[in-house]
Structures are given as structure tokens and as C-alpha cells.
């Protein structure tokens, strides 16, 4: 069997074992909580009784997957060169509020308006990520700590902006603060016509299936091309795998840090847009938090590759969707967070174990071919 | 610089700081800058940060990066609340320690046994900590249970039954309360000193005393015992330690479990302050503790200074949010001192060759400092009340500034964050 296929098989097997183990651990927790694990697992697949609620469930599932996928991509770009962009959380919130505010200040034809909003979000996210990047290359500040601090700063800054300078008209008796409403031309068209094609009732809740899904798919393709098929992507990967070797072959590590970080931040800036352009039409205090941290988990699960991230985002979204169904089945919904955390931990452990196993097998194989008894050292 | 010299510099630094604080108080008229209330609050707020920082110190000195401190702290708060309402303060302390240690054990298994990247494992623990505690609350505190009747909810535990005892220094801050009287005179320097001392000694929680004692204890264990030497060697060069017969795996396990226990203790402390577990109580203190440790250059003394600074900033903001604007004045004065030093050095050196080589950079630095000083001074004069959100981020901004200024002088353990496997020399 070729070594590459061997490794791929090991990876898939490892992930499968990790997921099975995670399910087992959570079953134990559910039993301990006095609920029926089978009922819990049934709840995950229970999209509702009526046709309308089923299509609503599918829409909620896809709508959750889109921002998770973008968040995973943002984190993965940094991870590719061993840069831990923990700051995705702050970058996307700040970018979302700035984009929502700028978008509400003018009215233009739909394509122009949406493009401007997307650009503003990407620029703000990229600029905010530029801060830790510059701190790293000029003063050697560890990006993990810098981005954690910048997260808190961004979160407080957004809650100040939404309350103060960027606040819009608040409806009578309304408690949530919000930016001014976006004009109709800023709203992204939804994808409900897909349902019509298949003769299914279109979803009604939360703005239907968000059209930003298409942008996310394109973004995934672009990231894949940039990372896997360009000189830049190769440089990123090389700097991550072996910095000194990359430097020796003429790659400037400082430029790479700044480029990778800004690219990561620019992608992170888009995370909040599906929700704003697809449903809410403004940034308000109900805006979904925590996507940046989940993005880290999604990127890890997807092994920093766009296809893997898409699968991981769909898995997480699938789990998250069951929130309501679990409550009806009388299972504590927080079991979802536990499943997600356990899966991430077990998958990274499984990665390590399978890497070691594959390496050992390869060493044995090399020894057999060379006709020696002792294993031969093979690079990881 | 010799040891004595360093010690003297530190003393002089503290004295100058006191003088500055006192001056700023007189000029700005905010008595809360050095009031005993502020310092009591600062002490209370600094302790959980310091404990989390100590947790980080133990793990990172053994070469394991621990950004899972926040998650471990969350576990500590939940278990402290759960045990506290049933069996009292001592049980809360033990349970919180064990809860944090459990998180540490998980981190150790992932990073030491399986060689998972330390940051990744930490992120997973930060995800799991709140998830597990939420789950436990939903199971054990749901409506109809005994706990719910005692006042529990999905997001909080019932109040703990017996609060920990308090102590205060007799004569000085209790009974006749001499320090308190001196403080209320508002004399320059003297009453500031009295306020600070009274804040630190009046009605102090036993756990605070314990936590403060843990600092010298950590220093002693890590820097003055054979075990500490082995632990630090595992963080500097585990392969060398291994070649000398140290069981690096065991050392790392012990260090990371202790690290989790410290973070858990920080959580217990938060529970004691609010007398019950409340979801989201930690509010990122695990991360701030980590920042305090880096601020303190992976040393207990520096860590204490960092924790004290963050605690003070927080305490001042709690007592009087207007007083925080005095930080602008404080920063301006610090920059003025820096400028004065630079000017003196320029006048004293007078070597033209040196001037040419270092001149441009130095002048830009000085210009930046002068501009910063003017801006800060202007801000102090014009801003009456900062929005709360800006006040909250004070410790985070301070951390970033310190990292920018000092990160090249910081030195982390050499093999910090490196995945170690026995017998594999890198």
C-alpha cells in the first residue's frame, strides 16, 4: 500500500474513532443527567413534524454553517504558518459593526452597496489584525497574547460604538441598542428558490437560506487556490513548516507574518455579514457572539484545509441546530458544547496518535525493503 | 547590576510611585486614588488574577503553555459553588482546587502524553470548561431539585453557607483604627501611605492572606529546592534534564495539575467574594492572569506587580470611575520623567559619533514621547468621564503597552510550548 494512502486511511479512521468516542462520552453524560441518550440522538435528526418546520430547520442549519465556515477559514490561514490568530473573535465583531454602520449611511444599486459593505468589513478586519502582526514583527510580541488582549478591547469598543457614535434610532420601549437600519438595497438576496425547485415549502424564519452561502463557497475556493496553487500559499506553508529554510530560500518572514495575519483578519471581517445582510439588517446587541472561538475549533477539526473546514462547519452547525429539539426531548442543550469540545480534543489527540502509528509503520516498511531488522528513521 | 542594587532600585521605584500617586491625588482632587477602600478593592481584585498567573507560572516554567487557565478557573468556580452551599467554605476551597486540578490533568494528558499542541489543547479546555459547568448546572440546579429550592438557578448556585473568616491588624486598622484616622486627614503623602496600608490590612479575608503567601512559597519551591530546579529544567531543556535522570513526564504532569489547582483556587476566591457561583464570573481573569505572568517576565515578583497593577486599575474604576482619568495625568508625568532622562543623557554624552548613529531613532522616540505627553495631558484636562467600556479595557491596553515596550527584555522558558517526547532529541 502506498504511504500516502496509508496516512489518509489512518486520518479518516482516527477521526471516526474520535467521533465515536465523543458520542460515547456524551452518552455517559446524558445518562448521568437522567435522560435517554437515544432520545437525545433522535433529537439531532428531528427537524420537526410539518414540512414548513423541516425547511426552517434546514435553513437554520445552513445559516449556522456559513459563518462557522468563514471563521474556520480565517483561523486556518494563520494556522498554516503557525500563527495563532485567537483574535478572530474581536476582528469580526469590530468589522461587522463598522460595515453595518457604513452600509447604512448611503444608498446605491444593490451590487455596489453589497460590495462596498463587504470591502469595508474585510478592510476593518484586516487592519485590526494588522496591529498584532506589526507588534510581532517589530517588537517580537507573541501574537497569542496580543490577540487575546485585542479581543477584549474590540468587544468593549463595539459595545461602546453600538451604544454611542454608531447608534441608530431606537424604537419605543425597545431594550436592544442597534446601528441604523440598512437600506433595502444592502440586503443579500436569499436562496429560497432552491426549495421551490425541489417542490418543497421555502423556509420563513430568519430570512430563509442566506445568499451569503454562495460568497462563502467562492471564498473557500479562493482560499484553496491561494493556499494550494500559488507561490504565496507555498511561501506561507514553507514559513510555517520550517522558518529558517524558508528564509534561506528567499522568503521574508516578516512580510509573510503580516500578509498571513492581514489575510486572516480580512476573512474574519466577513464572519458577521451573513447574519447582518441576510436577516437582521443592522448590528444590534443580539448579534451572535463566540463565532471566532468556535472558528478555532472548526479549523482544527478540518485540519486547516477548506474542504475539511466545510465538513467541520457543517458538523458543528448540525449539532448547534438541535438546541431547541434537545430542550423538547428534556436533554440539557449544553451537551452540544460538551460534544464539540470533546470532539476537538479527541480529534487532535487522534491526529497525533495516527501520525505516530503511520510513522512507525513506514519505518518498518523501509526496514523490510532494505532487508534490515531494526526500523529505519523516517522523517515525520 | 548586583543584587543589592536591584533591590534598591525597586525600593526607590516604589517610593517614586507613591510620591507620584500622592501628587496626582492632590492635583486631581480624587481622594479615591489612594483611599483604603480602593486598595482593599484592588487587593480583592488582584488576588484571582495573581492566582491565575501563578497557575500559568507553574505550567510554563515546566514548559507547558497554559491558555486553558480560563477554563480551569471556570471549573474552580462551579465546584466551589456546588460544594460551598452544601458543606461550607472549607469544602468549597477543596472542591474548587480539585475542579481546577481536573482541568489541569486533562491539559496534561493531552499535551504531555499525546503531544497535542499546547495552544490547541488550551482552546479546547476553554470551550469545555463553560460547557461542562453549564451542563452540570442544568442537571443539578434544574427546577424541582433541592438546590433550586435553596436558591439555585441555571446560571448560579445557592449562596455558600459559611463565609471564610476575616482578619485585620489590631490597633492600626481595627479597634482604635489609627491608620483610618490618619487617612481621613488627607495630608500629603502621609495619609496616602496610611490609606494604602489600611486598605491592605483592614478586614482582610483569610484566603487573601493564604493567596499572598503562595507567592513566596512558589518562589521558594521553584527556585530554592531540587524539585523546583528539575521543574524549571524541564521547561528550559527537557532533553538535558532527561539525560540527568529527571522524569520529565512526571514533572510536567505535576506542574500542570498544580497549575490547574491554582487557577481553580482563583475561581474559589471569586466565589467567596460574591458568596456564590455565577455563570461568567471569571470574565476573562484567566487570560489577564496569563498576561500578568508575561508582564512579570515569568517570575513570581513581576507577576505580583502585574496582578497588583491590574487589580488597582480595576479597583479604582469600581470605586470612582472619574478617578480613572487621572491615569492620563499619571502617564503624562511618567513620559515627562522619561523625556528628562533622555535629555540629561544627551547633554551628558556629547559624543558626536554616537549621536550620529543613534540620533535619528532616539529623536523619533523622544518626539513620540513628547507628543504622547501633550495628548495625555490634554485628555486629562478635557475628559471628565470616560465611557465605561474604555475603563474596562484599561488592563488590556496596559498589557499591550508593556508588551510593546518590554517584550524584548522578556525571556520565556526556552522549551516553553515545545512538544517533548522521551528519547527524541531535537
TrEMBL record, chain A:
Keywords: Cell membrane, Membrane, Transmembrane, Transmembrane helix. It is a multi-pass membrane protein. InterPro entries: ABC_transp_permease (IPR001851). GO terms for molecular function: transmembrane transporter activity. It comes from Nonomuraea deserti. This is ABC transporter permease. One of its GO terms (cellular component) is plasma membrane. Coiled coil: none annotated.
TrEMBL record, chain B:
It is found in: Cell membrane. Its main location: membrane. This is ABC transporter permease. GO terms for molecular function: transmembrane transporter activity. GO terms for cellular component: plasma membrane. Keywords: Cell membrane, Membrane, Transmembrane, Transmembrane helix. Pfam families: BPD_transp_2. It comes from the Bacteria. It is a multi-pass membrane protein. The chain crosses the membrane at residues 39-59, 71-98, 204-223, 253-275, 287-312, 318-339, 360-380, 386-406. It comes from Nonomuraea deserti.
Amino acid at each position: 500500500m502506498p504511504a500516502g494512502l496509508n496516512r489518509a486511511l489512518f486520518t479518516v479512521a482516527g477521526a471516526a474513532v474520535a467521533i465515536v468516542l465523543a458520542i460515547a462520552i456524551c452518552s455517559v453524560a446524558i445518562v448521568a443527567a437522567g435522560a435517554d441518550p437515544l432520545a437525545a440522538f433522535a433529537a439531532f435528526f428531528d427537524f420537526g413534524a410539518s414540512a414548513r418546520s423541516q425547511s426552517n430547520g434546514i435553513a437554520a442549519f445552513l445559516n449556522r454553517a456559513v459563518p462557522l465556515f468563514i471563521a474556520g477559514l480565517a483561523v486556518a490561514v494563520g494556522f498554516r504558518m503557525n500563527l495563532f490568530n485567537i483574535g478572530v473573535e474581536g476582528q469580526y465583531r469590530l468589522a461587522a459593526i463598522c460595515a453595518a454602520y457604513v452600509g447604512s449611511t448611503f444608498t446605491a444599486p444593490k451590487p455596489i452597496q453589497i460590495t462596498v459593505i463587504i470591502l469595508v468589513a474585510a478592510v476593518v478586519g484586516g487592519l485590526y489584525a494588522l496591529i498584532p502582526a506589526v507588534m510581532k514583527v517589530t517588537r517580537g510580541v507573541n501574537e497569542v497574547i496580543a490577540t487575546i488582549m485585542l479581543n477584549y478591547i474590540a468587544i468593549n469598543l463595539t459595545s461602546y460604538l453600538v451604544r454611542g457614535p454608531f447608534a441608530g434610532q431606537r424604537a419605543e420601549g425597545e431594550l436592544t441598542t442597534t446601528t441604523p437600519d440598512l437600506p433595502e438595497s444592502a440586503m443579500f438576496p436569499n436562496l429560497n428558490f432552491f426549495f421551490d425547485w425541489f417542490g418543497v415549502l421555502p423556509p420563513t424564519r430568519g430570512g430563509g437560506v442566506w445568499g451569503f452561502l454562495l460568497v462563502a463557497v467562492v471564498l473557500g475556493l479562493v482560499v484553496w487556490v491561494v493556499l494550494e496553487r500559488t507561490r504565496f500559499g507555498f511561501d506561507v506553508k514553507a514559513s510555517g513548516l520550517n522558518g529558517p529554510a524558508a528564509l534561506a530560500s528567499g522568503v521574508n518572514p516578516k512580510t509573510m507574518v503580516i500578509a498571513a495575519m492581514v489575510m486572516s483578519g480580512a476573512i474574519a471581517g466577513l464572519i458577521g455579514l451573513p447574519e447582518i445582510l441576510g436577516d437582521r439588517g443592522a448590528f444590534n446587541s443580539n448579534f451572535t457572539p463566540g463565532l471566532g472561538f468556535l472558528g478555532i475549533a472548526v479549523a482544527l477539526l478540518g485540519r486547516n484545509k477548506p474542504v475539511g473546514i466545510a465538513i467541520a462547519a457543517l458538523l458543528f452547525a448540525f449539532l448547534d441546530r438541535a438546541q431547541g429539539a434537545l430542550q423538547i426531548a428534556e436533554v440539557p442543550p449544553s451537551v452540544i458544547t460538551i460534544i464539540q469540545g470533546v470532539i476537538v480534543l479527541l480529534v487532535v489527540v487522534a491526529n497525533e496518535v495516527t501520525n505516530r502509528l503511520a510513522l512507525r509503520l513506514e519505518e518498518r516498511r523501509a526496514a523490510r525493503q532494505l532487508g534490515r531488522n531494526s526500523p529505519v528513521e523516517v522523517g515525520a | 547590576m548586583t543584587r543589592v542594587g536591584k533591590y534598591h532600585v525597586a525600593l526607590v521605584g516604589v517610593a517614586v510611585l507613591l510620591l507620584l500617586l500622592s501628587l496626582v491625588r492632590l492635583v486631581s482632587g480624587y481622594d479615591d486614588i489612594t483611599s483604603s477602600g480602593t486598595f482593599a478593592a484592588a487587593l480583592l481584585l488582584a488576588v484571582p488574577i495573581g492566582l491565575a498567573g501563578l497557575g500559568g507560572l507553574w505550567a510554563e516554567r515546566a514548559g507547558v503553555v497554559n491558555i486553558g487557565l480560563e477554563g480551569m478557573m471556570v471549573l474552580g468556580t462551579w465546584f466551589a459553588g456546588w460544594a460551598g452551599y452544601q458543606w461550607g467554605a472549607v469544602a468549597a476551597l477543596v472542591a474548587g482546587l480539585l475542579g481546577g486540578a481536573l482541568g489541569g490533568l486533562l491539559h496534561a494528558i493531552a499535551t504531555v502524553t499525546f503531544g497535542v499542541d499546547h495552544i490547541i489543547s488550551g482552546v479546547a479546555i476553554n470551550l469545555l470548561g463553560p460547557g461542562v459547568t453549564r451542563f452540570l448546572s442544568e442537571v443539578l440546579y434544574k427546577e424541582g431539585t433541592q438546590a433550586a429550592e435553596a436558591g439555585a438557578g441555571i446560571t448560579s448556585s445557592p449562596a455558600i453557607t459559611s463565609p471564610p473568616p476575616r482578619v485585620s491588624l489590631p490597633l492600626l486598622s481595627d479597634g482604635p483604627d489609627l491608620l483610618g484616622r490618619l487617612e481621613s486627614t488627607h495630608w500629603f503623602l502621609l495619609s496616602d501611605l496610611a490609606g494604602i496600608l489600611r486598605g491592605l490590612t483592614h478586614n482582610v479575608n483569610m484566603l487573601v492572606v493564604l493567596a499572598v503567601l503562595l507567592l513566596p512559597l512558589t518562589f521558594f519551591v521553584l527556585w530554592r529546592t531540587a524539585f523546583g530546579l528539575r521543574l524549571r529544567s524541564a521547561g528550559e531543556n527537557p532533553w538535558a534534564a532527561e539525560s540527568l535522570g529527571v522524569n520529565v513526564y512526571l514533572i510536567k504532569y505535576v506542574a500542570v495539575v498544580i497549575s490547574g489547582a491554582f487557577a481553580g483556587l482563583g475561581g474559589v476566591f471569586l466565589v467567596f467574594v460574591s458568596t456564590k457561583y455565577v455563570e461568567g464570573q471569571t470574565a476573562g481573569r484567566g487570560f489577564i492572569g496569563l498576561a500578568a505572568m508575561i508582564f512579570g517576565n515569568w517570575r513570581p515578583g513581576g507577576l505580583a506587580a502585574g496582578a497588583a497593577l491590574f487589580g488597582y486599575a480595576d479597583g479604582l474604576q469600581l470605586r470612582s470611575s472619574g478617578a480613572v482619568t487621572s491615569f492620563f495625568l499619571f502617564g503624562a508625568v511618567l513620559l515627562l520623567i522619561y523625556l528628562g532622562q533622555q535629555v540629561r543623557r544627551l547633554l551628558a554624552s556629547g559624543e558626536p559619533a554616537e549621536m550620529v548613529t543613534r540620533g535619528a531613532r532616539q529623536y523619533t522616540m523622544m518626539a513620540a514621547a513628547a507628543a504622547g505627553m501633550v495628548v495625555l495631558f490634554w485628555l486629562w484636562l478635557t475628559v471628565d468621564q470616560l465611557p465605561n467600556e474604555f475603563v474596562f479595557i484599561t488592563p488590556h491596553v496596559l498589557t499591550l503597552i508593556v508588551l510593546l515596550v518590554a517584550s524584548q527584555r522578556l525571556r520565556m522558558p526556552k522549551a516553553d510550548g515545545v512538544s517533548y517526547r522521551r528519547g527524541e532529541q531535537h
